[in-house]
Specification:
Layout lengths: L20 H30 L5 H31 L10 H31 L4 E2 L3 E2 L8 H36 L16
Antiparallel strand pairs: 1-2
The structure holds protoporphyrin IX containing FE (2 copies).
The site of one protoporphyrin IX containing FE has 25 residues, from helix 1, helix 2, helix 3 and helix 4.
């Protein structure tokens, strides 16, 4: 009878789990929307408030920013709902404990700001009021008009938007660090085509 293998044989490395197709679609859709939304926000304020050009182009930029911002709010709510119901795959097996803490803080900070930033924008245009979008639709107003409060809310909207962009900057830096320096499978969790078998 053949002898049984000793049970101390090295076990297989843990499987890398990737995000579901729906989670990945949500992720890259939001990336695309933010890539358009943030530059429009910065440029429209520069063109309007700094250069004092209030023509049809500036108006179109403001309308686009309001429209895309409301779409981001809806997509972020749907995405967060999906995340809470379906959860996320187990962490990449080679992560250090501090990586796990840092990424959880970063991800949940991004989720919160993806809701707070557009809600503050919507609140600001409600107070102003500047609810018109391309002369075609009017966003629902949340509060009675008060221009002074609107100005204050826009300051918070800008701070929150810059905080969101800072978290995204750290997030992208971390993704590149994992892929190019640590050479692990973190980025592959969002782009499974990059998966390396260990
Ligand atoms: C995630 C979504 C959003 C992002 C990332 C974003 C980002 C920004 C940024 C970067 C600015 C320029 C701030 C500055 O330079 O002072 C800005 C301004 C502005 N945003 Fe948004 N925004 C978002 C959603 C919204 C929404 C939903 C609305 C309204 C429905 C809105 C209305 C405005 C307005 C009216 C300004 C100009 C404020 C001013 O003149 O001081 N934003 N936004
Ligand atoms: C607007 C830009 C971005 C936003 C708002 C964003 C947001 C997020 C959020 C909220 C998560 C957590 C997902 C969850 O567990 O539910 C996540 C995960 C991830 N993101 Fe992004 N992201 C952005 C851009 C990017 C870019 C440009 C890359 C790649 C270079 C990237 C790579 C990843 C990876 C690899 C994960 C999975 C990390 C892990 O848990 O292992 N993200 N992202």
């Amino acid at each position: 009878m053949p002898k049984r293998q000793p049970s101390s044989a090295p076990s297989a490395a843990p499987e890398v789990q990737v995000y579901s197709p729906t989670a990945r679609r949500f992720h890259w859709l939001v990336v695309g929307l933010i890539l358009v939304q943030a530059p429009i926000g910065l440029y429209m304020v520069y063109r309007g408030s700094t250069l004092n050009i209030w023509d049809a182009a500036t108006n179109a930029l403001y309308s686009s920013h309001k429209l895309i911002g409301m779409v981001i709010l809806l997509v972020a709510m749907a995405r967060l709902g999906y995340r809470v119901v379906h959860g996320a795959p187990d962490d990449e097996p080679t992560l250090e404990p501090w990586h796990k803490v840092a990424s959880a803080v970063n991800h949940w900070g991004i989720y919160v700001l993806l809701l707070v930033v557009p809600v503050l924008g919507w609140l600001g245009v409600s107070y102003y009021p500047a609810l018109d979008v391309f002369g075609l639709v009017k966003l629902p107003g949340l509060v009675a008009a008060n221009k002074e409060t609107a100005e204050a809310v826009f300051v918070y909207h800008a701070y929150a938007a810059f905080a969101l962009l800072a978290l995204i900057g750290v997030h992208v830096g971390a993704a590149l660090y994992h892929h190019l320096i640590r050479r692990d499978n973190v980025l592959a969790r969002m782009i499974p085509g990059l998966l390396k078998r260990r």
